[in-house]
Write a structure and sequence with these properties.
Blueprint (H helix, E strand, L loop, with lengths): L2 H13 L2 E2 H10 L2 H4 L7 H10 L3 E7 L7 E6 L1 H16 L7 H8 L6 H32 L4 H30 L25
Antiparallel strand pairs: 1-3, 2-3
Helix pairs in contact: 1-5, 7-8
Length: 204
Amino acid sequence: MNLTRLMALGTLDRYGPTHGHQIRRLAELTNAGEWSGVSVGGLYRELRLMEGEGLVEAIRTEQVGRRPARTVYAITPDGTTELASLRVHAIRSMEWGPDAMSVALTFAFEGADRDELRDLLRARRDRFAISARELEATRQRGISAGYLTPVEAEVMRRGVVHAEAEVTWHDAFDELLADLPPGCGQSRAGGGWPDAADGRRPQT
């Protein structure tokens, strides 16, 4: 799903004709690139693509002083239809993205040096903690400055909650690793393949 497109169309629908710099600034103020999957750097490209598809239209250019000229875009009726479709799809979605860490721990745990693994996970945990603090600080600044609505502030809080949940999980997993004897990460009864009663590798 193109979340950059959803963000841009939603912003044009809400605020009316807007140039790309303003849309990008809104994404930066809300730290959307950190928590939302919106490609802040790809906003201009997405606007040009949507113009070619008839979802937005360039209605004028603006230039202030010696700054580069900026194209002002407006959403079209087709863009409004596309926005409605994207919004429904996004809210209904319960998809999880690829989880590289879970794959590594599930299938390659025993091959890792235990101390090195704990160091890697602790560093990962600290990055989540920093992300939670920074996002909450951004959220509080937005609330104080008045540029975040209650809905926007609560959506950002969801990102904080997710990051804090990761910190909690990492702390609990670190305790597990501390108490786990060597060789006990993926042991199974009989040590065989989980769906092979006789211990033989299943046929493919």
